[in-house]
Amino acid sequence: MKKYVIKRDEGSLPEKLTRYRDELNAEQFRVVTAKPGAALVVAGAGTGKTRTITYRVAYLIEQGVSPHRILLATFTNRAAREMLRRVEGLTGSQNVHRVWGGTFHRIANLILRKHAVSIGYAPNYSILDSEDAKEFVNVSIDEAGIDTKAKRFPKAEVIQDIISYANNTDLPIEKVIVGKYPYFEMLTRQIERVDRLFQERKRERNVMDYDDLLLNWKRLLIEKPEIADLYADQFQHILVDEYQDTNRLQAEIIDLLGVRHRNVMVVGDDAQSIFAWRGAEFTNLYEFPDRYPEAAVYKLETNYRSTPEILGLANTSIANNRKQFAKVLQPVKRSREFKPAMVPCANVDQQSAFIASRILELRDEGTSLEDVAVIYRSHYHSLELQLELTRRNIPYRVQSGVRFFEQAHLKDVISYLRIIVNPRDELAWKRILKMIPSVGSATAARIYEAMVLDTGEEEKGRRGDFGKRRRRFAANLRVASPGRRGADFI
Q1: Residue-wise pLDDT tens digits, 337-377
Q2: Exposure b/e, 319-330, CB count within 10 A at least 16 = b
């Protein structure tokens, strides 16, 4: 068998290599033009990490790598879209959309839609958001026959956190409880039973939560070697952004996908890891050279974001970290002769009192309250501050709200679409049923159970009796008149 290699005309490249030298600093250029192979990029804050990854993808495409053979795992889908939009501008290629770009969960979903049948799911599975998953946990607690009033049994949100942490760290429930929730240790067996029922219920209803997307992706790669070989061969180059915030499960998936070519480039900063509370392992960054001994190590240390004073404080604050990739960020910006302040506080109350006092000082010095902003990590952190501001009669606005797709009216509409795609979607059915006047949670549950009763083997992968019952039910029922919350029943 003859093998033909069609080489691209060098003159057809949209830009010459000199463009990269002009548009990147020396540190970035080394990363972008690195030879194939494993690479660890230690990128300090504000050093142009996103720019570097973007140019790296563009460089690979201009070197003849087919876009569909590039996997770009990012922290948000928005980041991936923006990077690929810029890659298209750099390369002029019309095929950039073929790059597998997005979050781990998005890429997992793309792959599982094709191969879900191989692990016992129908390809039309529904994806549960956090509120839906919590409802499933509540149902599982009831099904387990646990008297939550007789014992101090954890709420559904806490059960969710325990299960999710166990999934993402590859630890058994028992170890998670002992290590993070020792006050629930006497309830370990009941929590494990709730977890089993929770997992069974999701499989029976053909639904997955976000953790399942990753767990089932890994399961697919381990249990189905022919599928694992397909993707290990396809992904010639793998790039992972914010690697310090990946968890053990995500790191294992990348290793499984990179086993063939080993062209894995991970980018991250051990000094910026903030998601350990949900299972992120910043040690993945330290262990990368152990798993890839041949990996080249690069550092991005030129900071474009902050003033010298801020960088000086940052460098000093991390200098004594016992374990770190040593780096010293160098500023590009000029000094503004304004020194930042680090204020140690004993607790959240003291922190809130200081912030409120400082706001009043600024006001007395002539600063308008409209020009003062307080930034916090999570919305629940603002509770004590809001109480303190109210106590001191300081007017304020909170810029926060419910996520777009978690707004009630949108979830109502989406529920109709979900049962069209997946007729076994229990939560979508119950949400629609509860739109009917006088139908509450208990009645909705009874109606749903009546529709799925005695469906036998037909329900496991086909509409069968369930579809007939649903259509008979729909033919005799309307959700509400046009003036109410609802529409014609489907």
Answers
A1: 788 888 989 999 999 999 999 999 999 999 999 999 999 87
A2: eeeeebbebebe
Provide CATH code, domain 10-110+213-300. Answer: 3.40.50.300
Burial 368-397, CB ≥16 within 10 A → b, else e: eeeeeeeeeeeeeebebbeebbeeeeeeee
- Rounded Cα–Cα distance for residues 171 and 473 (Å): 44
Residue type (1 letter), 324: Q
**Amino acid at position 202, single letter:** K
- As a whole-number percent, the residues of the chain with pLDDT over 90 amount to 60
Burial of 210 (0-12, 13-18, 19+ CB in 10 A): buried
Q: Nearest Cα to 134, choosing from 165, 155, 120?
A: 155
Task: Classify 334 as helix, strand or coil.
Answer: coil
Q: How does residue 482 score in pLDDT terms, banded at 50, 70 and 90?
A: very low
Cross-strand bridge partners of residue 331: 303
Question: What is d(CA 252, CA 249) in angstroms, rounded to the nearest whole number?
Answer: 5
Instruction: Name 437's Cβ contacts closer than 8 Å, sequence gap at least 6.
Output: 480, 484
Q: Against a cut of 0.70, is the pTM above it?
A: yes
Q: Are 216 and 210 in contact (CB under 8 A)?
A: no
Q: What pairing do the DSSP bridges indicate for beta strands 70-73 and 100-102?
A: parallel
